[in-house]
Specification:
The chain is mainly alpha-helical and 134 residues long. The chain has helices spanning 4-11, 14-21, 26-30, 39-45, 49-57, 78-108, 112-126. The protein has a domain at 4-96: Ankyrin repeat-containing domain (Serine Threonine Protein Phosphatase 5, Tetratricopeptide repeat, Alpha Horseshoe).
Length: 134
Amino acid sequence: MVSPLWKACSEGNLENVVELLKDATPVDIEVKDHTGVTPLIEAVKNGHVEIVRVLLDKGADPTNASSQGPPESYTSDPVIHGLISVAKGKMAQAAAQQQQQQQQQRAASLPERWRVAAQRCAQRLSGDIPMACE
């Protein structure tokens, strides 16, 4: 048994998908069938480009693979590959921003002397300054 969203994605029913996504939770968007196929994979597999776009815009995980592989392995459509690639890039960018914020929060909690030393080490590691950490 699959969810109404999964079924609408499989059938290519864009209007129904949009309606179902209005109240969808992340769990609804990532629900899998018995082989691990998500609504995104089902839309990719059936070539429903606009549904793929809507799912990714709503937060479907482009890295959530089934037992047969990741979403992009189900198609050769360059438009779908592009949409998935852009979504993966956005995820990577968001993760990098979150990591940077966490580092800034940790640094803000350090005593000033340690913070300066940590900044120098970080600059040294990134190649911004050619001096040893002090």
